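Continuing the batch. This is chain 6 of the set; chains 1 through 5 are on the previous pages. Same settings as before, nothing changed between runs. Recording input and output for traceability.
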Amino acid sequence: MENKVGEKVFIGGQEAVKKSKKINSQGTAARCAGFLGSISILMSFVLLLCFLVSPLIVAGELRQNTSAARTELTELDGLLKSLETFDHSQGEGPSLQLERFIFKIKDDPRLKLQAEQKLLEFFKKPVSRDGRIAVSKPLSWIAGSESVKVLAAFLTDSEASDPARYVLERIPGEEADRALLEALDKSSPEFLPGIIGSLGRRRVEAAIPYFEKTLRRGTSLVLTAAILEALGNLDNAEATKLLRNYIQSPDEKIRLAAVDSMVRIAQRQIKENRLEEAGKISDTLLGVKLEPAQKVAAFRLKILTAGSQGKSLMLSALKGKDEPSQEAAIGLMAEFFKPDELASLLGTFNYILPPRQIQFVSALSSYPEPQVREFLMKVICREKDQSVRIAALRTLGQIGNETTVEFLAERAAQAKGLEKTAARESLASLPEKAVDQKILKLLGTTTSQEVKNELLLSACERNMVAARDFFLAEASNPAADRALVSRGFRAFGDLSLADKVLEVAFSTQDETYREELVNILAIWAQNSARPDSKSAFFTQLLTKENEPEKVSVLLQVIGKIGERSSLPLIRKYLSDSRPPVKGAAVKALSDWPEVEALDDLLALASKTSDLKENVLAIRGLVRLTASQTYRQPEAATAFLKEIYSLSRRAEEKKLVLSTLPNFPCASGLEFCESLSNDPEIGQEARTAAEKIKQKLQP
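Output for chain 6:
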């Protein structure tokens, strides 16, 4: 019983638990349902909000886009307004601005369409011819079917026909073709050549019946030529047939147009590997009398369509007596002959007519082969025609290498005029690095001064810094080209070579050469990266030297450098008892680049009894005064008048007078006029006075 009761209780407990679980489950479900319901409501609200707000956003975006478009198109309106009276002689600014604008928006379908409408509206207006032309190019980038309709109406308008055709030619599709075709029957003769040309460039084969009818009934030479030219763009049997009727026309213009068009058709056929068709055209053309240039083109077609027989045709032409055929064959050599086939090609040179020999040796630039280099050198040595030799030299400059360096240097040393120039240019342009090494080697071994000079010149042209030791060695060589040595020093030298260059400057008796070396030394010093004084190297040497010649050179260098700290040293040597030294100090002072030397020069000019010193001082004074463009005219003029009073020669007085117009003022004018009747300097005074008057005019 207890058990039953317990069991009952147990069972009842289980049921209670189950019931409890059921109740709990129901509660959870209820809560979930409530939660989901809340979410559902929330989502519904969000969706409703989106539904309500989305149009506003879209509308805002549309307004924004519309506003941007409006801004864009407002700019376009302004550009078009400026082009209404456009004249290209005033510059291409407005035209280029429009092109940039259309290029910027051409990929935006909406803006592109609106811009097209605006450009077409502009086209319809009574604007300038140049304005329509300026619009036509950008319009062609965006033009569609609407443009075809509008522009077709302008094909017979004398002011707008050309720009209208320009655009129509570039609009793809049959609609533009039809517009041009329909215009043929509507147009007066003055517009037909242009329309026919457009149809040809668009390759509208539907125009051929019109062309044939027009040619058959007879028409003007201008219209006939236009049709024949257009047929050259149409690659079909009918076009070729029509052209054949005119390749022997008695009228040169017509004949040339027909032949040219047939050549163009054949050239396209060759590109498309339609060799048989192109070959027939070449045979047709070669069967009639042609102008030389046209025969070249026709024979070129013959070679290109001959297949395996092309080489033999070329060799026969090269050995023949027909110049146009030779020209065509030479022009195709690189396409047909491989390097291992050069022997047969080179063997034709003696047969080639003189006018074509230049072309032949020039064409060999495609063959950088040893045998070709050898051949060219033989031509240069043996050929009587200078023009051929020059052409061969130039070709050698393109395909030469280290093996041709010595030959070119020797040729440059021996030749004259244009041939010498060609040899030099070729030597300088040889492309391989090994060439530089060969030049250096030859500089060390050659016994010919002329050849050495050419090698040194080439080293300068090739910027061969490694050659500077050879320039240094040549510096003391009396037989050397001193101008060339100077060039090498300027190009490759620096202060590290100063000791050796000074030795040359000390020893040379050539004053001009010495002065050039002094200038170079000064340049090296000024360009040096020394942290201390630029002239320190030379001032230190000066303190150790006592030989007048050496002291003189050093003083000149220091003067050219022109450092303020060196000026006391120059002053010291102004009182030196040795004439060469004092003269060098005076020269250094007269060359001084800055105005701190003015007082010293003025004192020297007023006190010296030596005419040469006076001349140097006066010239230095005038030079420094002229450089003081900031000085007040009256003050500068007063100083120049003082310099004039110290001048002892007419030459220096004239120099002062020529400087006075740099500082125009009343006192300067009065001074010049007071000297106008002077027998020595009167002319210069009158000239100076006139210049001052002109500058003083308001």
